[in-house]
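As a warm-up, study this chain.
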Amino acid sequence: MDNFGKVEQKREDYQNRFSGVIGSEYNLFEKSVPWHEEFQNTIGDKISDYCFQLKDKEKISVLEAGCGTGLTTIRILNADKRIRVLALDNEDQTLNQAREILHDFEDRINFIKKDVIEYLKNIDDNSLDIFASAYLIHNLPATYREKIFREIFRTLKSGGLFINGDKYAKDDEAQHERDLREQIKDFDVYEKMNRSDIKEEWTRHYYDDEKIKITEGEQKKILQSLGFCEVETVFRKRMEAIITAVK
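Now compare it with the structure written out below.
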């Protein structure tokens, strides 16, 4: 198999990563991350602050990549009434949950089942106000991530916002390894719920992530090299971090 074939195989692997138990019951994830609400709310707050600056716009376009079950989507929608969301995901299980959860927002949201980069390639240059995602980028192989970041920069308007909340490894490897051990330990909460199957799947998922992890410093360097400015870490607790940037 040539290198292209290997990349495509890895891409297929990540596309199926949430088709099992953790996909059907993804909302239980927050049980093992005590600051999950704060993390998600911070994404909404940062988007709200950004939208406040866009006083003359009647509508604000947001592409959310990897919308999952809608936990981040609802924060995006509540950030500003002018927001219209293109909610992208490639898993039927999570998309169906999101459609049900966000039914009351159906006039402001369009759900799309499609591969992220395939969708981005069909968007015009300088057409999006905001690109947002949570817990997506770390799932992607490095070569695929690089392509996505280039497409994000191309499709954002000048002054457009990039915001990603994710599992960013700390640049200090020893600190990252400690964070990982502590997170795996926190999956014991599922044992108390008699859901050892969820504990096993999340543990396996996290160890798989180690093969393709992205560090905080690596993400910032990529964004800066593309031409983004105001690259900042606006939230950090153990493995979770939120990074923002402006085109």
